[in-house]
Amino acid sequence: MAVTMNDVARAAGVSLKTVSNVLNNYEFIRPATRQKVLDAIAELGYEANLTARSLRSGKSRMLGLVVSDLSVPYYAELASRLMTVAAARDYRVLVEQSAATRANELTALQGSLSQLTDGLLFTPLALDADAVAAARRGTKPLVMLGEHIDDPRFDLVTMKNVGAAKAMTAHLLAGGRRRIAVIGASPEDRAGSPGLRLAGYREALAEAGVAFDPALIVPSEWRRDGGSTAVARLLDGGQPFDAVFGLNDALALGAMHELLLRGVRVPEDAAVAGFDDIDEARFSSPSLTTVAPGMNEIAERSVQLLIDRIEESGKAAEGTHVEAQFELRIRASAP
């Protein structure tokens, strides 16, 4: 027979209301009383009925996270950190992958994920701001992650894409590199991560008096094989370069792999830099110079902002926008 809250109350010698207050983290409970209840819960093996509790409170203490693809290292590491931060605040995170399609993003905003959770952390890639606003009208809180949508109607936590890319490019220029290839963007990109990081690259070139060469900008999927293919295109096309800036670490690691296969020494013949500072960057050979975009700060600020919105039970007149601080991680691939 299942253990009930009444059983816990009797074992602890307290009222049913006191057990309920402990389970709901009510703050005005004496530590000794709280410990008695927790000891009784452990001894009896009581499991709270979260569904019933959420029906009573109107809150599930669940957050939703929507990302395009968890096989992308940045998203996987960010999801892990978001879960850790949420757990410290007694929330759990449900994750859904959108594959960056309009239909999947709309489903995430309006479907079961939204119904099961108190609010969403959302990284849109297919929807625009008006589509998101229409889909979320009158519903639960939403915090945007990333840079695809920058709109005052929404809370947003992002990174300093332009400044970070500019700083990394300046580092490569300071090392004597003048033909810096960029992989993961096209010369026409102006928005989103590719456009913003390319803008930072161009600003650094301009300040150093180095001409921008669109032949050094190679579009690619942001995966390791994309980085490898992009560098192969440069080498096979006879395009001279002395550095490669991958707009994420997966691109940079794929590029470095291709360079080493082709007998191009890193960093002697070509320096390599990335963006994201995923765990793998420290352990590649040579270790990868990259931008650490403030992932811990992004996780902390976005979760806290979303929980604040949930617990305030009201919509702010205007969204809060946060940009995390970045650092350069200088390693062997581009000292």
TrEMBL record:
**Keyword field:** DNA-binding, Transcription, Transcription regulation
- The HTH lacI-type domain covers 3-57
PROSITE patterns associated with the record: HTH_LACI_1 (PS00356), HTH_LACI_2 (PS50932)
Q: Is NADP among this UniProt entry's keywords?
A: no
Any one GO MF term held by the record is:
transcription cis-regulatory region binding
Family matches, as InterPro entries: HTH_LacI, LacI/GalR-like_sensor, Lambda_DNA-bd_dom_sf, Peripla_BP_I
Say yes or no: keyword Transcription regulation present.
yes
* Identification of the protein by name: Putative LacI family transcriptional regulator
Q: What organism is the protein native to?
A: Arthrobacter globiformis (strain ATCC 8010 / DSM 20124 / JCM 1332 / NBRC 12137 / NCIMB 8907 / NRRL B-2979 / 168)
